[in-house]
Write a structure and sequence with these properties.
The longest helix is centred in the middle third of the chain and has 20 residues, at 581-600. The chain contains 39 helices and 18 strands. It is α/β, with parallel strands linked by helices.
Length: 930
């Protein structure tokens, strides 16, 4: 019977009574301490977490809180002192602890059996499927080297009893491809090292052609299950998930869990609420945080927000917030990791029902299942696959080309020429600012160049200082040299096979691993520790333990210490985020396919991107602008021409915006409109939308506000008037004719002047998030020109290092972890984009402008980096109020919160007036990545 000594005033009497009760029933008294925190100083944080859990404040929590700080982890000596009256209780606790010898190794895990043809074992069936797939992959005959590789892989798969796992993945992939229409999918990660996966159709990259290493995927020495990741279209992945549930049953299939931890903004908001801060103060504190990561709330930023740091209550809140950051908050579902078992899941792991409908998950995360050696099936979602599938459908419909991921024409010089110019907006993996800047420097000319392009803009190569040496060698500015050991320690070509393809510079995870094996002479166990450390460094810091071992061993064998240290720094960077070559090759395949589509069919590519939102770096406005720059005619959304999705016109060269672009228009309402139009022909007036499609006046007004009634011969202002003149109530038969007559009379009597163009553009952004009429900056240009501001298109005519003044709408804010505090901001004006570089000191001085401005004026210095022009900012001004002047609407429009996809930065202008229909975005939200 458990007892705790908590200085509650009645401890001796209570424990004595419990001891008597235990003896009376033949039980032992057990000393415990009801531990809630490891040291007494953490008690305030426990109080805050209790208040959060009960949705109250600390001040109002009352008896929900413990009366003192005694529920901390006490030393054995202190427990002996507290229980000196009952020494048998401490003895019983020790005996119970010694009896608890459970290990995860005691749990038995069985992978489910797969259905095979009668009389065949899973291994036999896998081998047959593999060789049949090889014949399909190599129609001219399977090369002898590939046959040898397949035989070796299949033998190891059989030895490790993994055939059923491979058959499961193939079954899932086959299900996706056999749907009507097929679900696009592709394997990635270390599975791309496997020739078996390639021949089974799981992955798309030939490991033989790209010299990928199977040992990176499966190794007998590691004694770990393989991990096959498969990407599916993000809009249709749920079909695959539900197939797995049907195939194995909910009692045998569940998604893995992931632990959600408190990040800075979440911690500020919840601690602030629990400590009784007002909403405006909590919001001001949250706006001081840049990005979602970090471990502190800097006091200088709090002061800049206008808050009083001498307030002791505020200081307590800040201290508690820093303690809260990184604490577990709740369990969530893994992005797609499935656990499958032969018997009921409950015999191995606890399970729960997900918040999403028809989802169940196990309450262990990926580290837990790795410890048990459970095989995980990763069913992941990728927006670009959705975009590519929709684009390929458009090619078949409008251009008569039936293509798949595997049949898109290879090694097209026009595609590489486009990429060399940094023309990659919307292209998978290479559309970020850093990748766009790298493309003209790396100048890819073949597929393997894309593999390097994907991998090189990552913390691993950057922190290892491998990027610039590689680029110099690629351009012929530096001789290619491969480090070698001293003559007494090994052959001079020891690393040639590892580094030759990357010009003597390690770029990929596998290269760093092989350098540790061959140059630092790590044994298998040490290499396995290093591999695990690379995967978990960000959270655990395990790599540091191996630094001296690797650097000193390489130096002792004659390698240059600087090279050895750079290799280790690269491994440290890989721990934060780096790509193995196989993963980069899988992604490079999608880079090429999306580039080919953009190069040859820009209208279809833009259409696919718009219909797959939200995804990628850029908002619909930038996707449309880029399409127009590539010669695509973009037509407005219209009730008589648009479907729900964006579509191509009959000739395939023009893009018609879909009704999905209209903010707040439900898909089922748009479907009713399209159905009525297809059944009864085009609509003649706003009244027909109500009568035939059953649309409410509020919906018709939303369509009118989006200028989607242009085909009815109505200007936006006139359409809004007509929509508001419709009678909302359903007409009674007796008055139906009179109502129709009155509505028509109202429209005939009133003819309104056309909106000014600037108001039209504002209204477009408010309702569509883009405008086909003009760019907002065009209306500010005359004033800006008088003040000496230049356009984006004019920057190329400026001399290097000359001072300029530029202005534009903020599209993207980025502060990569590998950039050492440098911030990159992309502005847009009516002629193009402006790339800003914000050094850390300027970012801190003008933090509020960097984080919150929607329209930014910049004074800075022009710099050229090959084909890319940058402006190195020296002073920033928040000119967001200029956007409000574009409309005659006297209400100050509330700027929307920034990108909801990746850790938002809040930018607001003016007080909110939520009830007014025009109080919405003037400019689409920036997308912010940290």
């Amino acid at each position: 019977m458990a007892a705790s000594y908590l200085y509650s005033g009645d401890d001796i009497a209570r424990i004595t009574a419990l001891d008597a009760l235990a003896r009376e029933h033949g039980l032992s008294l057990l000393a415990t301490n009801d531990v809630h925190y490891h040291e007494a100083a953490r008690r305030p944080l426990q109080d805050v977490m209790t208040a959060i859990r009960h949705k109250t404040t600390v001040a109002r929590a009352g008896h929900l809180l413990h009366p003192n700080a005694e529920r901390h982890l006490k030393s054995p000596e202190e427990m002996l002192r507290l229980f000196e009256r009952w020494p048998q209780a401490v003895t019983a606790a020790r005996e119970l602890a010694d009896a608890c010898t459970f290990s995860l190794d005691e749990l038995r895990y069985e992978y489910p059996e797969e259905i095979c043809p009668e009389g065949r074992t899973p291994q036999d069936w896998l081998e047959e499927q593999t060789w049949a797939g090889a014949d399909g992959r190599y129609p001219s005959g399977v090369p002898a080297s590939v046959r040898t590789t397949l035989a070796r892989e299949l033998a190891l798969i059989g030895k490790l009893n993994l055939a059923t796992y491979f058959l499961t993945i193939k079954d899932i992939v086959d299900f996706a491809r056999n749907q009507d229409p097929p679900i696009l999918c592709q394997g990635r990660g270390s599975a791309a090292n496997s020739a078996v996966c390639y021949c089974l159709g799981i992955t798309a990259v030939d490991p033989a052609r790209h010299a990928l290493l199977f040992d990176r995927f499966i190794s007998e020495d590691r004694n770990e299950p393989p991990d096959i990741d498969v990407d599916f279209e993000h809009e249709r992945r749920e079909e695959v998930i539900q197939y797995i549930y049907r195939r194995y049953g909910r009692q045998r299939a569940g998604l893995c869990a992931t632990v959600i931890h408190y990040r800075p903004r979440m911690a500020i908001r919840e601690v602030g609420k629990a400590m009784g801060l007002t909403e405006d103060v909590t919001a001001a504190l949250a706006r001081t945080v840049w990005g979602g990561w970090g471990s502190e709330v800097a006091e200088r930023n709090v002061e800049q927000a206008g808050l009083d740091l001498t307030d002791p209550h505020l200081k307590r809140v800040l201290k508690l917030t820093e303690q809260m950051i990184g604490m577990p908050r709740h369990l969530s579902q893994h992005v797609g990791g499935f656990i499958l078992t032969q018997g009921p899941l409950t015999e191995t792991v606890p399970i729960g029902n997900g918040a999403m409908a028809d989802r169940s998950f196990i309450e262990w995360d990926k580290d837990d299942i790795d410890a048990l050696g459970i095989l995980k099936v990763d069913v992941l979602a990728l927006g670009m696959l959705t975009c590519i599938r929709k684009c390929l459908d458009l090619l078949g419909e409008h251009h008569g080309r039936s293509l798949t991921l595997a049949t898109v024409p290879r090694e097209d010089p026009a595609v590489y020429a486009m990429l060399c110019k940094g023309d990659s907006l919307g292209v998978f993996q290479v559309e970020s600012r850093a990748q766009m800047n790298m493309l003209p420097r790396l100048r890819p000319r073949e597929f393997y160049d894309l593999v390097i392009q994907v991998a090189i803009v990552r913390p691993g190569p950057i922190q290892g200082d491998m990027v610039h040496p590689y680029l110099r060698r690629r351009r012929g500015e530096e001789a290619v040299s491969i480090p070698a050991p001293g003559p007494a320690f090994g052959p001079p070509d020891e690393l040639t096979s590892i580094l030759a393809r990357t010009l003597g510079v390690p770029i990929f995870q596998e290269q760093a691993m092989k350098i540790a094996l061959d140059a630092a002479k790590f044994n298998g166990a040490e290499a396995n520790r290093l591999r695990k450390a690379m995967a978990t460094f960000r959270r655990r810091g395990m790599v540091e333990e191996l630094q001296d071992m690797m650097v000193e061993r390489m130096t002792a064998r004659g390698y240059d210490r600087e090279f050895a240290q750079r290799c280790f720094n690269q491994i440290r960077g890989f721990g934060e985020y780096g790509f193995p070559e196989s993963h980069a090759a899988s992604f490079a395949h999608l880079v090429y396919v999306s580039s080919w589509l953009k190069c040859h069919y820009p209208a279809a590519f833009a259409c696919g991107l718009l219909n797959s939102q939200p995804m990628g770096f850029y908002a619909p406005a930038q996707i449309v602008r880029d399409a127009v720059e590539h010669g695509v005619t973009v037509l407005p959304a219209d009730v008589n021409h648009s479907m729900w999705d964006c579509t191509l016109e009959a000739d395939g060269a023009a893009l018609r915006l879909g009704l999905r672009q209209i903010d707040g228009l439900p898909e089922n309402v748009a479907a009713a409109l399209v159905s009525a139009r297809e059944a009864g022909g085009k609509f003649a007036d706003a009244g027909a939308l109500k009568a035939r499609a059953g649309l409410s006046p509020a919906v018709i007004e939303r369509l009118a506000a989006a200028d989607a009634l242009g085909s009815l011969g109505l200007s936006r202002r006139q359409a809004l008037w007509d929509a508001r003149s419709l009678i909302a109530a359903p007409p009674l038969p007796l008055f139906a004719a009179a109502d129709a007559r009155d509505e028509g009379e109202e429209r005939r009597r009133t003819r309104l002047p056309v909106m000014p163009l600037s108001e039209e553009v504002v209204a477009d952004y408010q309702t569509l998030r883009l405008s086909l009429k003009a760019h907002p900056m065009a209306f500010l240009r005359a004033e800006l020109a008088e003040r000496g501001f230049v356009r984006a298109a004019d920057l190329r005519d400026r001399k290097v290092r000359s001072m300029v003044r530029v202005a534009g709408v903020v599209l993207v804010r980025q502060q990569p972890g590998s950039a050492k505090g440098v911030c990159f901001i992309t502005l847009e004006d009516e002629t193009g984009v402006i790339n800003l570089v914000i050094w850390p000191d300027l970012k801190e001085k003008q933090r509020s402008v960097v984080m919150g401005a929607r329209l930014m004026e910049v004074r800075g210095r022009v710099e050229y980096d090959d084909e890319v022009i940058h402006v190195i900012a020296q002073h920033l001004t928040d000119a967001s109020e200029g956007l409000a002047r574009l409309s005659d609407d006297p209400l100050a429009p509330a700027m929307a919160r920034a990108d909801e996809v990746n850790r938002p930065v809040v930018g607001r202008m003016g007080p909110p007036a939520r009830s007014h229909p025009r109080n919405v975005r003037v400019i689409p939200k920036s997308r912010d990545f940290h």
